[in-house]
């Protein structure tokens, strides 16, 4: 069984792109196909190189950070260890330490909880930790899977604000999968709407937001 | 009888117990290491340790000193453990737990058979690792050999702990054992971490075997079978998923069994194995998570 059939999407350098769609449309699978955590076929290229046959480890090393569904918190490790692990592939110790300070600047609460086991964090803090850990890889592309899931609106807003800042200030390309269409369209420049494994609609986020037909048939608001 | 209680003897017996417990602890830590990453008890861990001990025997037989052979064997065993993981565990990495258990049982017989084939099944002996003279501590005579055994076992365990706690590779292998999927996403090569774990476990087993053999007048290919059982009992007592638990559990068991053997006449040395089995059974019935382990139902 395949969850995706002939979908085609692209993220330009420094762009912020959203993937929308109902449950089971193939949003998560799209991200997992890119990061290699699911079996896939077809062409997947990153920075001019094919990554379609690479293992998840190799995709991460190429500069793609995937914040998975459920956040992938390493609950037994401390917050600090989670961050150190994020920089596992990097050899430049000095700049890793710099990055840790920079990342903790975005998430001051993580700094306070540095020696705490990650499993003791709240859901929102774990989502922030997942994001912070992904940033420690110094990625060129960030894959975000349902960052709003199960979190309070205020926390969600905070997370999207930080992602937007990273995108604008640091030129980090973002591909975000969301069920919350309003949120995702606000945070992205372009968007794809998936429907049972295909791209049903694509276009500028601003345009999709205004389009009555798209709104009614795919976004449900 | 209470009035005439011999405190000197008690102290001596405790140290003797710690010495056997320390040896079991190194093997118990190996079991825990594999259990945490693969989810199974490696039934071949003892046989692999036996094989390492025979390698050490060969090196000594060719004129090497005990301690040179010791460190060389640890290195060889590490490489051997990595090779075993690549060759026989890797193919069943995603198979159900029962399959992996059967594979380790198969490995038990293969390693045992290989050792019998390479080294003819006659008894042999290793020289003493330490001086056999007693040493006087606070008016009580202890054997240097027992104290040295405790020291070497605990040093091996401590080194392993330092590795896991303070190195990047150690951090990555801890992460890979508990959460392989998330570890892959940050670039950790999870299957190599498993191999690393097998290598370290084999190296710990080698230490255990090489400390066990010299204490015996002679040994053969069945050398490590009782040790595996004691180590298992120690690990279960401490909590099978806790390395610290494995060490504390094994030391406790070592002291406990030795004291029971000394002060309860009808147990003596013959009934030590059944008592160890009773400990396993008792812990599993009363407190399955052991002293330091996490409750089983919390694991997914």
Throw out a few tags for this protein.
A: 221 residues, alpha/beta, Rossmann fold, 2 domains, six-stranded mixed beta sheet, 10 helices, B: 300 residues, mainly alpha, two-stranded antiparallel sheet, 2 strands
Q: So what's the CATH class of the largest domain in chain A? A: Alpha Beta
Q: Which ranges of chain B are low-confidence, i.e. pLDDT below 50, for 5 or more consecutive residues? A: none
What is the straight-line distance between the termini of chain B? 53 Å
Assembly state (oligomeric): heterodimer
Strand order of the largest sheet of chain A: 4-5-6-1-7-8
Mean pLDDT of chain B: 91
CATH architecture of chain B: Orthogonal Bundle
Q: What is the helix/strand order of chain B?
A: HHHHEEHHHHHHH
For the largest beta-sheet of chain B, the strand count, sense and barrel status come to:
2 strands, antiparallel
CATH fold-type name of the largest domain in chain A: Rossmann fold
Tally of alpha and pi helices of chain A? 10
Give the SSE layout.
The complex is a heterodimer of chains A (221) and B (300).
Chain A: E1 16-21, H1 27-35, E2 45-46, E3 49-50, H2 56-62, E4 64-67, H3 79-86, H4 93-106, H5 108-112, H6 123-135, E5 141-145, H7 153-170, E6 173-177, H8 181-187, E7 190-195, E8 198-204, H9 205-210, H10 212-219
Parallel strand pairs in A: 1-6, 1-7, 4-5, 5-6
Antiparallel strand pairs in A: 2-3, 7-8
Helix pairs in contact in A: 3-6
Chain B: H1 7-38, H2 45-61, H3 66-89, H4 97-118, E1 134-137, E2 140-143, H5 144-166, H6 168-178, H7 180-185, H8 190-212, H9 225-238, H10 243-263, H11 272-286
Antiparallel strand pairs in B: 1-2
């Amino acid at each position: 069984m395949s969850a995706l059939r002939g979908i085609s999407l692209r993220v330009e350098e420094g762009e912020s792109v959203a993937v929308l769609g109902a449950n089971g449309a193939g949003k998560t699978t799209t991200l997992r196909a890119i990061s290699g955590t699911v079996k896939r076929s077809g062409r997947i290229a990153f920075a001019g190189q094919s990554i379609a046959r690479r293992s998840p480890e190799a995709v991460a090393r190429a500069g793609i950070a995937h914040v998975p569904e459920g956040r992938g918190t390493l609950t037994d490790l401390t917050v600090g260890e989670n961050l150190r692990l994020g920089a596992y592939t990097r050899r430049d110790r000095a700049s890793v330490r710099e990055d840790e300070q920079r990342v903790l600047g975005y998430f001051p609460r993580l700094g306070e909880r540095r020696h705490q086991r990650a499993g003791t964090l709240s859901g929102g803090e774990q989502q922030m930790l997942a994001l912070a850990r992904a940033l420690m890889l110094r990625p060129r592309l960030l894959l975000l899977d349902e960052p709003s899931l199960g979190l309070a609106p205020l926390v969600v807003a905070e997370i999207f604000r930080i992602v937007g800042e990273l995108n604008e200030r640091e030129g980090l390309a973002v591909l975000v999968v969301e069920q919350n269409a309003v949120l995702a369209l606000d945070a992205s420049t372009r968007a794809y709407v998936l429907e049972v494994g295909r791209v049903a609609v694509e276009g500028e986020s601003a345009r999709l937001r205004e389009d009555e037909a798209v709104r009614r048939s795919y976004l449900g608001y | 009888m209470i009035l005439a209680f011999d405190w000197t003897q008690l102290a001596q017996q405790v140290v003797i117990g710690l010495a056997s417990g320390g040896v079991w602890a190194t093997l118990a830590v190996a079991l825990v290491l594999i259990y945490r990453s693969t989810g199974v008890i490696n039934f071949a861990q003892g046989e692999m340790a036996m094989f390492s001990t025979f390698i050490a025997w060969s090196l000594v037989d060719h004129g090497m000193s005990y301690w040179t052979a010791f460190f060389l064997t640890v290195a060889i065993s590490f490489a051997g453990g990595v090779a075993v993981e690549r060759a026989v565990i890797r193919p069943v990495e995603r198979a159900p737990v029962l399959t992996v258990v059967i594979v380790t049982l198969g490995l038990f017989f293969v390693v045992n058979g290989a050792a019998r084939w390479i080294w003819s099944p006659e008894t042999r002996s290793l020289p003493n690792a330490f001086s056999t003279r007693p040493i006087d501590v606070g008016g009580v005579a202890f054997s240097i050999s027992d104290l040295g055994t405790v020291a070497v076992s605990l040093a091996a365990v401590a080194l392993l702990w330092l590795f896991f706690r303070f190195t990047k590779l150690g951090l990555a292998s801890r992460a890979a054992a508990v959460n392989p999927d998330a570890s892959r996403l940050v670039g950790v090569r999870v299957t190599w971490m498993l191999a690393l774990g097998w290598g370290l476990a084999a190296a710990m087993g080698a230490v255990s075997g090489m400390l066990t053999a010299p204490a015996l007048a002679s040994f053969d290919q069945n050398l490590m079978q009782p040790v595996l059982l004691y180590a298992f009992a120690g690990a279960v007592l401490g909590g099978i998923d806790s390395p610290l638990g494995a060490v504390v559990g094994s030391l406790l068991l070592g002291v406990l069994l030795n004291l029971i053997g000394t002060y309860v006449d009808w147990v003596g040395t013959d009934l030590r194995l059944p008592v160890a089995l009773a400990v396993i059974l008792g812990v599993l019935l009363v407190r399955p998570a052991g002293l330091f382990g996490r409750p089983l139902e919390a694991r997914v």
